[in-house]
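#onboarding

Welcome to the new folks! Below is a worked example of what a typical request in this channel looks like: someone posts a single protein sequence, and someone else replies with the predicted structure as tokens. Don't worry about understanding the tokens yet, we'll cover that in week two.

Example request:
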Amino acid sequence: MRNIRSVLERVKLPWLLVALLVVCVSDPFGILNGAYSEDSYSQMRSELKKTKNPIVLPVGSWNDFYSLEYNDYWRKEVGGEFVERTYGEVLDAASLGDDFFNQYLHTKGVTHILVPLSTYENSAISHKFGSRGSIEIQLASPYFTFVTTSNGPYPAALLKVGKEIVAEVDTTNSSYEINWKNTDWRFYTKQTKFAEVGLYNYSFSDFYQWGPDVSWYFDLSPERSNVLEVAFTSTSANLNQVNVQLVLVSAYGPNAPEHVISVKTNKYDETKTLSPNNPGVFTFKLQAGESAKIFNVTPCRLPSDFEPTDLSINKICFGVSKLFISPETQAE
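Example response:
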């Protein structure tokens, strides 16, 4: 994949234009003025003129962020790290809930967001849990108002940020991290495959080991403890303690057996029975540096016990579906 230097050398741009390139990337309506770009964004530009000093933030779901035109263009030119150099902060804020994200956008002066049409049609910005919590930002009132869409090969929707919702937390620092223990990185990490297609062109595909909706946890003892641990760390004073909602599901398939799970922290201990139509929702608090441990009360089963065609030799315990994190408000 080409780096910034090779790109600039290829198009014979002086290094003094690097700063200009960086500025352009933050303006999805001021770059890539090709035939379809100009036409597809013309209505959005007209709508933005109605707002004084508009600032547009491009954001997407886990699998369509690069469906936005300039994201796709610059990833192919200089790589995803360049495109996403400040995107982590945006996702951190989004992972702390609708109210927090609304206040974050107002703090940054963002007036509109630009999302891929696929995200808009799903009515939410969605990301699976990983090193941060699950993201499900609702693209509706009172948080956003629909403005218009673009057409062409990169269809997108422009949404206006709703009025500021007063939150009782400080949004200036939303940095935190979730660490998963007694499992491997594939359990919680989005993977990206890319292949070169022709000269200076690439195709990309994003995927999760178990898909975007759940991650399955297996009993690999005695080689590995079958107690899944979720640790929360943060250096932000406003995230010294957070609210956690953990959603666990029973083994896959309508014939999955009931399974008893216990979740424990320093001040919380609750046991629930999981079944195919009855996920377990555990709600508790975590302080920075603290962890929650998920114990299997009943034995984990071989998949062949309930799905005869599945000959996997690993005993399946449960699935993690969602992990929502929200800041503790002063009222709490």
